Amino acid sequence: MKLERKQDLSIYYWLTSFLGPLYSAIKVVDGFPTEPIVTPSVSIDGENIRLSPFQLGDRRGRRKRVWIIDVYAKNKAQRDEITSEIIDTLENGITVYDYDSGFPPVVVPQLGILMPYEIDATPVHMFEQMMEHLYWRESIRFLTEYSSVV
Fold this sequence. Notes:
Layout: H1 3-22, E1 27-30, E2 41-52, E3 62-73, H2 76-90, E4 94-97, E5 110-124, E6 136-148
Parallel strand pairs: 1-2
Antiparallel strand pairs: 2-3, 3-6, 4-5, 5-6
């Protein structure tokens, strides 16, 4: 499995691990939701990947990636609370695990860490006339830089 997919899975399981105990009814979706949205829900999607050279003679360089977490809630208070929890937890970084040892793995070795920076949380205003069900949405966009443990 490629490193990018391991990062995707690590962020997905990171979200489910700390949001699940806080909000028993929350649904975490890998990618943009394609089914009708059930509130509260959170979706995670990886965007562009940027590789930039770090030093002469080092072909690996730095791996940067843009991520978007969308929060869908029943009301403004719920949206703001879920967004705050995500941002507070996000600032600690996200551990990337090696999922090649099986699913679900018994012992998951740590490959590295995604360190977030440039975190932007923007409310997305929805108009009642344009949809059947009104919900509250926030889009959290952030960049990460990957560094391996080795």
